[in-house]
């Protein structure tokens, strides 16, 4: 793998959501991962995922209509901007090396955690379990382990 694929370069989401504590910047720090998860649940109403960006805009329109009315329309108009011109997938052996990395696995765990929270909110909206204008109550979304 090249220099741009070094493990330290993958330590991105966790320190961002972890905060300013010095331990947040240490790649592979388990405490930082747990703190990032806690912060995501305590301080963020919703965090979207890029591969489901249209759903993210839809969720924002539903839970914060005053600020995001029409967001899906704007998102659709700018869809071309979010495309990669020439996407080259990694070789299978490169992917295997990445997936073996502790830092990659931690970042993936955090991503899956954030994605699950987003999917829960999206599900509630799509199934009329969360109505427009209804306040999202964090403790209803937070797992008991946090």
From TrEMBL:
<keyword id="KW-0472">Membrane</keyword>
<keyword id="KW-0735">Signal-anchor</keyword>
<keyword id="KW-0333">Golgi apparatus</keyword>
<dbReference type="GO" id="GO:0004394">
    <property type="term" value="F:heparan sulfate 2-sulfotransferase activity"/>
</dbReference>
<keyword id="KW-0808">Transferase</keyword>
<dbReference type="InterPro" id="IPR007734">
    <property type="entry name" value="Heparan_SO4_2-O-STrfase"/>
</dbReference>
<keyword id="KW-0325">Glycoprotein</keyword>
<keyword id="KW-1133">Transmembrane helix</keyword>
<dbReference type="InterPro" id="IPR027417">
    <property type="entry name" value="P-loop_NTPase"/>
</dbReference>
<protein>
    <submittedName>
        <fullName>Uncharacterized protein</fullName>
    </submittedName>
</protein>
<dbReference type="GO" id="GO:0000139">
    <property type="term" value="C:Golgi membrane"/>
</dbReference>
<keyword id="KW-0812">Transmembrane</keyword>
């Amino acid at each position: 793998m090249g220099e741009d694929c070094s493990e330290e370069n993958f330590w991105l989401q966790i320190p961002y959501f972890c905060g300013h504590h010095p331990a947040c910047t240490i790649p592979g720090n388990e405490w930082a991962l747990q703190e990032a998860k806690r912060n995501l649940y305590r301080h963020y109403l919703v965090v979207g995922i890029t591969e489901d960006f249209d759903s993210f805009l839809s969720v924002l329109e539903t839970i914060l209509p005053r600020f995001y009315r029409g967001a899906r329309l704007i998102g659709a108009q700018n869809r071309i901007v979010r495309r990669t011109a020439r996407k080259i997938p990694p070789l299978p052996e490169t992917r295997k090396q990445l997936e073996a990395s502790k830092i990659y696995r931690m970042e993936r765990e955090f991503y899956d955690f954030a994605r699950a929270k987003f999917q829960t909110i999206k599900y509630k909206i799509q199934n009329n379990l969360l109505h427009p204008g209804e306040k999202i109550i964090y403790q209803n979304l937070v797992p008991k382990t946090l």
